[in-house]
């Protein structure tokens, strides 16, 4: 049995939310303190020819935490490029970056890595979906097709990143077609007291104005089986980090038991990026 700490984080190209100053050094220290086993990172600069301190961010972070790194370059500019990265304490056996761009103005990729955890192959997919609903839908269909083609049903699967899906309309595709569960929907009650209390207040507020037949708060909720009880749980609010309101980031899993899930609000995270990071402790049987 192995317990993995999984972190998903849009790092905003290593720049803070306060004046656009460099935040990579503080971000490196914060991530080190989390002691992650798997890092799913978005908006990572693989190349910055203007500022050496912001160059090869995946390599810099991996070196500081003694992790292996895989980088998927998506957006290429004259002096910079950026994309997704997967960092792992376990061997990365294979990785491939699939172009899922929906139009020329928005380059997006799907980074798929296979990590060996003890004797088990764990499939890790880092995603950063587009800003337009139609494009996101097509990108998710490409993701579903890849998983059906390359990921055996018997092997554990993690999908994490910035989904830009603030209405949570894409969740049924993951839950119904792939048998995935979002970690906050599967986490035991009370593992993150602050998040649990916030969710309870939101539930009470919704019920005050809810009419039969209408979705709660305009969001498509996630139905999850935890033990013998079914729970409706939306993903946490992660954007903007200084005052989180939109539910953009997710961690989906298949083949794990969720021990704990939390979103990191407040200092220092609200200054390091425009997104708040997600952390989940997952048990691999």
Walk me through this protein's architecture.
The protein is α+β, with helices and mostly antiparallel strands and 285 residues long. It contains 7 helices and 14 strands. The chain has helices spanning 24-34, 57-65, 133-150, 171-178, 183-186, 193-209, 269-272; strands spanning 2-10, 38-48, 68-76, 80-88, 92-99, 109-117, 120-128, 157-162, 181-182, 223-226, 229-232, 249-254, 257-263, 278-284. The chain has a 6-stranded mixed beta sheet with strand order 3-4-2-1-14-13. α1 (24-34) runs parallel beside α2 (57-65) and α3 packs parallel to α4.
A few lines on this structure:
The protein is an alpha+beta fold and 285 residues long. The chain is built from seven helices and 14 strands.
List the SSEs and their pairings.
Blueprint: E1 2-10, H1 24-34, E2 38-48, H2 57-65, E3 68-76, E4 80-88, E5 92-99, E6 109-117, E7 120-128, H3 133-150, E8 157-162, H4 171-178, E9 181-182, H5 183-186, H6 193-209, E10 223-226, E11 229-232, E12 249-254, E13 257-263, H7 269-272, E14 278-284
Parallel strand pairs: 1-2, 7-8
Antiparallel strand pairs: 1-14, 2-4, 3-4, 5-6, 6-7, 8-12, 9-12, 10-11, 13-14
